[in-house]
Design a protein that fits this description.
Shape: globular
Largest sheet: 7 strands, parallel
Strand content: 5-15%
Oligomer: single chain
Structural class: alpha/beta
Number of strands: 11
CATH architecture: Alpha-Beta Barrel
Number of domains: 1
Distance between the termini: 29 Å
Radius of gyration: 18 Å
Number of helices: 12
CATH topology: TIM Barrel
Length: 308
């Protein structure tokens, strides 16, 4: 096993994209027992060995000093971290102190993005709520509160050298293409950007390219996540929650499901995107070995997306 990333053998994208992989492949923050046997060191070793250049932070990480030391030792960049915001429920003033601390943490680690999702009313973490038929919806005045709050947080993020990228997500107030477009239209492009996620676009709205095409000018961070069609159908029919759907295998890495990533990849490149794409797949690592699936994803990326 390679103990430090070798730039010469890492994924080298001729179009300038930096490829990484999300830590949820190794361990799940929403259900801590899923992947609890994996450590930060396990993840970093796999990333370095397979050839991914970066990752995001996760709740299971040790203190920031340890994260920085170990990531640098393995040659892996820390790119971003998820932040659950409750702007609508609590007001942005209540969110600012904790958000600022999250930005300070990411600045210390050398990250460049903070991933924000509004969690007021979210059902993504509730085990007995069907993700396919239940989601919170904002009133018109709440949209204004959210948009103005994000713009304020975006200024704070910039003070710490970070880009605020909003994550459209299943089971939240911003899930569909229509909702994502509305949020982008209501926020300041200088302060609020978008994380585009293929898996959430497909399951949440049924249209990967439609959402990307409508929001491309705001996309500053990307997750490539695939979907197994049989498992999505099975989960929909069984009225499963988000957590139970991914435990049942609805998500997987690119090349192992139904999404053709050549279209979104080429569209991003054609529109000048030259930043991070992180492979992501909520799976149970006891059933889907992270090193194996990281390797599968790399083979697909290089064979389908980067071939001449």
């Amino acid at each position: 096993m390679t103990f430090r990333l070798d730039p010469a053998t890492a994924i080298n994208d001729p179009n300038g994209i930096a490829w990484g992989m999300h830590p949820i492949t190794w361990r799940n923050d929403d259900i801590p027992e899923v992947g609890a046997f994996n450590t930060l060191e396990d993840m970093l070793l796999d990333l370095a060995d397979v050839g991914y250049r970066g990752t995001e932070c996760a709740g299971f990480f040790p203190p920031k000093e340890v994260v920085k030391e170990r990531a640098e030792a393995r040659g892996i960049a820390i790119v971003a971290q998820w932040y659950s915001a409750f702007i609508v429920r609590e007001g942005v003033d209540a969110v600012v102190p904790d958000f600022t601390a999250a930005c300070e943490y990411l600045e210390y680690l050398g990250a460049t993005r903070i991933v924000v999702s509004e969690q007021t009313g979210s059902v993504q973490g509730i085990r007995d709520v069907c993700i396919f038929t239940n989601k919170p919806v904002l009133a018109d005045e709440e949209w204004t509160v959210l948009a103005e709050g994000l713009n304020r947080l975006g200024e704070i993020a910039q003070d710490h050298g970070l880009e605020l990228v909003y994550h459209h997500h299943l089971g939240t107030v911003v899930q569909t293409k229509e909702e994502t477009i509305r949020l982008m239209e209501m926020t300041d492009p200088a302060r609020t950007s978008l994380l585009f996620d293929t898996g959430h676009a497909l399951v949440g709205d049924g249209d990967v390219m439609g959402m990307l095409e409508a929001t491309i000018d705001r996309v500053k961070h990307v997750h490539f996540k695939d979907v197994r069609p049989d498992k999505m159908k099975e989960s929909r029919e069984a009225e499963r929650s988000f957590l139970d759907s991914f435990l049942a295998g609805m998500f997987t890495v690119p090349g192992d499901g139904m999404i053709d990533f050549t279209a979104p990849y080429q569209f991003l490149v054609n529109h000048g995107y030259r930043d991070w794409i992180l492979v992501e797949a909520e799976q149970d690592p006891a059933l889907a070995n992270p090193h194996e699936y990281a390797t599968r994803a790399r083979a697909y990326i290089e064979g389908a997306l980067l071939k001449p």
